[in-house]
Amino acid sequence: MSFFTRRRIRNASLLVLALAGIVWWVRAREQTLDSSALGTGYLLLAAVFFLASYNVRKKLPFLPLGGSTAWLQWHIYVGIGTVGVFALHARTAWPSGWLEALLAVTFYLTVGSGLVGLYLTRTIPPQLARVSDEITYERIPAFRRQVRRQAEEVVLESVAASGATTLADFYTARLYGFFAGARGWRYLVRPTSALRRALMREMQDVRRYLSEQEQIGCERLFTLVRRKDDLDFHDARQKVLKLWLFGHIGLTYALVLLAVLHGLLAHAFHGGVA
C-alpha cells in the first residue's frame, strides 16, 4: 500500500470519526430537548474560518505553521466535513429565509468550486508535465514574443539566403497569425493540438516547392510551431487554475461574511448563548 493510499485512508477515517462524534452530540442534545443549532453553527463558522486561512497560509510561507501539503490535506477533508455539519445545522436542503437561502447558495457554490478545484489541481499539472518543461505563467508572454521573433528571423534569413519567397508567403498567409496572437476562449475551454497538426500538414505539403535554403528554414519553423503550441497549452491550463482560484477564494470570503452576519442575527433573535 502506497503512502498516498495510507494517507487517504487515515484522513477519511478521522473525518468519519469526527462526523460520527458530532452526530452523537447532536442526538444527545435533542434527547434532552436542547437545541444544537448554536453549537453546530459555531462549529461551521470555525471550519469556514479555518478553510479561509489556508489562502493566508500560502501567502506567508516563512511562518512556522506546518507544511503546505499538510495544510492542503486538512483543507480538503475539513471542507468535505463541513457538508455533513451544514446538513446537521440547516436540517433542510433549502432554507426559507432570504439570508439563509443566500448563505446556502454561497455554501453550495463554495463546496462545488472546491471539488472542481480538487479535480483541476490533480489533472492539470500532469498534463503540463507531459507537454514540456515547467513554465511560469507570468513568463509565457515573454516566451511567446521570443518564439515569434525567432520565426520572423528564420523567414527573413531564408529569403536572404535563397532569394525565393515561397516560405515567406506561406508564413504570411498561415503562420503569422498563429505566432502573433493568443488562442480564443474555445481553446481555453478545450485546448487541443488540432491547429498545430493542421499547420504541420500544410508545411509538409509546401516543402516540395521550397528551395534547399527554404527547407532548412522550414525545419526550424516546425520546432517553433511546436514550441508556440506548447506555450499556448500552458497558458490555457494555467489560466484555468488561476480563474478557478480567484473564484473559489472570492466565494470563500463571501461565505465568511454571510456566516458571520447569520451568526450575529441568530444571537440577536436567540437572546444569547445557550
Report on this model:
By secondary structure, this protein is mainly alpha-helical. The protein has 2 domains: 3-133 and 248-270, no CATH class; 137-238, no CATH class. It is built from 9 helices and no strands. Helix 2 (37-59) packs antiparallel against helix 9. The radius of gyration is 28 Å and the shape is elongated.
**Which bin fits the share of residues in helices?**
over 70%
Strand content: under 5%
The tally of structural domains comes to 2
Order of helices and strands: HHHHHHHHH
Largest sheet composition? none
Radius of gyration from the CA trace?
A: 28 Å
The N- and C-terminal alpha carbons lie at a distance of: 47 Å
Low-confidence stretches: none
Mean pLDDT: 89
Based on helices, strands and strand pairing, what is the structural class? mainly alpha
- Write down the overall geometry: elongated
Total strands = 0
Number of helices: 9
List keywords for this structure.
single chain; 274 residues; mainly alpha; 2 domains
